[in-house]
């Protein structure tokens, strides 16, 4: 017998977790309700893509990031979660050397509900009295990071971020089967979500080594595809190892990747395609293949947004689809 409403499951789970009496070693099964906490890493590519004089786009990154931060209260309720959410929302760095410059307070670049554990009273008090203040501090420090980065542009080693750096921010804990009533169970766990803001072009000094996806390679792929007479772009690209990005040597367990703001330089100023297939179509296939081969559980890729609310709406939809 199952409790009919997920809110009932959540309330029961929260109360029983508080008593510390509910963990069990019974193996999880597919038909048991699953309730996840989310470790959301917002990861901006701080290369010259953030310079509007070089790469103009409708909305500055900070507008999109601020929109996500302002939506944390509603994101806590994703999939009917009601209480005892142990979410984390954090700005993570591809190049962590920025933090050594004392540009921003790293502690204020994170909204962390895990620190309250099962203390529902402290969590509720924090949401009422301090959450909005901390969101404001988060946005202020994000602005400082962008101001500094714009004046001190550096490369952005996205491949190494997924290969190594991100591991310091992932939460890898086994799902737990929780007994909330006699013979009533739920699965509790945490899902890592990487929200990467990048233009999609990987310009590396390691040319022809599987770490580069620049316009030169994209043009080569486009030319070869058109000359081949093939009608299936994805099948054509994935059948050519020389076009693919090497998978990471370290796997990406329990990691869901949402890529935002991928730019298409093959469009004209009015947004019309100048060539087919477009840069975006080619990059989307290669990025998806790379991250999936590297172990990511789910990969979704979106082009540039024109409305600031699209960022939080897209993240919300992505989180809701995690099962």
Helix fraction, binned, reads 25-40%
Distance between the termini: 21 Å
Distinct helical segment count: 10
Radius of gyration: 21 Å
What class, by secondary structure content? alpha/beta
Q: In total, how many domains does the architecture comprise?
A: 1
Q: Please provide the count of β strands.
A: 8
Low-pLDDT segments, ≥5 res: 1-7, 14-21
Average pLDDT metric = 88
Beta-strand percent range: 15-25%
The main β sheet shows up as:
8 strands, mixed
- Written as H for each helix and E for each strand, in order along the chain, the element string is HEEHHEEHHHEEHHEHEH
3D shape? globular
Give structural notes.
The protein is of the alpha/beta class and 323 residues long. The protein has one domain. Helices cover 35% and strands 17% of the residues. It has helices spanning 6-19, 61-70, 72-75, 120-129, 131-151, 158-163, 215-228, 233-238, 279-293, 309-320, and strands at residues 23-24, 34-44, 88-91, 110-112, 176-181, 184-197, 255-262, 298-303. Strands 1, 2, 3, 4, 5, 6, 7 and 8 form an eight-stranded mixed sheet that branches. Helix 9 (279-293) links the parallel strand 7 (255-262) and strand 8 (298-303). Helix 2 runs antiparallel to helix 5 (131-151). The longest helix has 21 residues, at 131-151. The two termini are 21 Å apart. Residues 1-7 and 14-21 have low confidence and may be disordered.
């Amino acid at each position: 017998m199952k409790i009919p409403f997920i809110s009932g499951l959540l309330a029961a789970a929260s109360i029983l977790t508080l008593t510390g009496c509910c963990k069990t070693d019974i193996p999880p099964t597919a038909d048991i309700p699953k309730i996840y906490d989310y470790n959301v890493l917002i990861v901006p590519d701080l290369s010259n893509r953030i310079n509007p004089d070089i790469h103009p786009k409708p909305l500055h990154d900070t507008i999109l990031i601020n929109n996500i931060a302002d939506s944390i209260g509603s994101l806590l309720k994703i999939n009917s979660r009601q209480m005892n959410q142990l979410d984390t929302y954090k700005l993570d760095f591809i190049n962590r050397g920025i933090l050594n410059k004392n540009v921003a307070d790293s502690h204020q670049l994170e909204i962390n509900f895990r620190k309250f554990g099962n203390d529902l009273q402290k969590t509720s008090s924090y949401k009422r009295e301090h959450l909005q203040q901390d969101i404001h501090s988060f946005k202020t420090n994000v602005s400082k990071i962008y101001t500094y980065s714009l004046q001190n542009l550096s490369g952005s080693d996205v491949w190494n971020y997924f290969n190594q750096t991100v591991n310091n921010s992932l939460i890898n804990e086994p799902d737990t089967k929780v007994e909330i009533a006699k013979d009533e169970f739920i699965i509790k766990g945490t899902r890592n979500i990487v929200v990467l803001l990048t233009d999609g072009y990987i310009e590396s000094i390691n040319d022809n080594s599987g770490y580069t996806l620049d316009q030169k390679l994209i043009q080569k792929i486009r030319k070869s595809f058109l000359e081949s007479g093939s009608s299936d772009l994805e099948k054509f690209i994935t059948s050519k190892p020389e076009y693919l990005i090497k998978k990471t040597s370290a796997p990406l367990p329990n990691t869901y990747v949402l890529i935002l703001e991928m730019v298409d330089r093959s469009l004209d100023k009015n947004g019309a395609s100048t060539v087919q297939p477009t840069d975006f179509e080619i990059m989307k296939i290669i990025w998806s293949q790379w991250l999936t081969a590297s172990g990511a559980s789910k990969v979704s890729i979106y082009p540039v947004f024109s409305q600031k609310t699209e960022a939080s709406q897209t993240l919300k939809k992505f989180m809701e689809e995690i099962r």
